[in-house]
Amino acid sequence: MRILIIGASKGIGLETTRQSLAAGYDVRGLARSASSINLHDARLEKVQGDALNQHDVEAALVGVDAVILTLGVGLGELIKPVQLFSDATRVLISAMKDQAVNRLICVTGFGAGDSHASIGLLQRVPFQIVFGRAYDDKSRQEMQIKESGFQWTIVRPGVLSNGPQTGRYKVLRKPSEWRNGIISRSNVADFLVKQIEDQTFIGGAPVLVN
């Protein structure tokens, strides 16, 4: 299988690229800074492109079996209106339909969509002040994905750390279980790679915490 990872040059995307290669997949990594991906493997194709550019995304989707969307924004961008997630997802959904690609795995975060109601009362105000613009857009992104008709899985990690890949983390599937917590980017990537062929969470949006 060939996997397209959008946002492959850093963070969860880079770690997902590394683990996908280790799992034996052919990987196409799309990023504006794809040349900086510090991985070397014959099965890795580094593609420089913009997730907001329809032509770039359509070209990257040719011959792909599944897409993992791992876009993020920097702290400095949180003080401005955020539209990256919904805009990029709109482009991607259109391109996937054109290329007949049906499997989409997307990272959003705890606090997006209907998981927002599970944020503790003491956390809600500071969360909204700091992350509100980004997570409002992640919620729009989730709605687009749910209405896409694809075989989708939305993944909502808690607070991200740079810890190791242990494979030991909780997958909270039911709304009654949802809570915030810490999880390493490597463990998020571990879950993402498992979703490429596992159908357990198709149509689901679990929360991940350690």
Automatic annotation (TrEMBL):
<dbReference type="Pfam" id="PF13460">
    <property type="entry name" value="NAD_binding_10"/>
</dbReference>
<dbReference type="GO" id="GO:0042602">
    <property type="term" value="F:riboflavin reductase (NADPH) activity"/>
</dbReference>
<dbReference type="InterPro" id="IPR036291">
    <property type="entry name" value="NAD(P)-bd_dom_sf"/>
</dbReference>
<dbReference type="InterPro" id="IPR051606">
    <property type="entry name" value="Polyketide_Oxido-like"/>
</dbReference>
<protein>
    <submittedName>
        <fullName>Putative NAD[P]-binding protein</fullName>
    </submittedName>
</protein>
<feature type="domain" description="NAD(P)-binding">
    <location>
        <begin position="7"/>
        <end position="198"/>
    </location>
</feature>
<dbReference type="GO" id="GO:0004074">
    <property type="term" value="F:biliverdin reductase [NAD(P)H] activity"/>
</dbReference>
<dbReference type="InterPro" id="IPR016040">
    <property type="entry name" value="NAD(P)-bd_dom"/>
</dbReference>
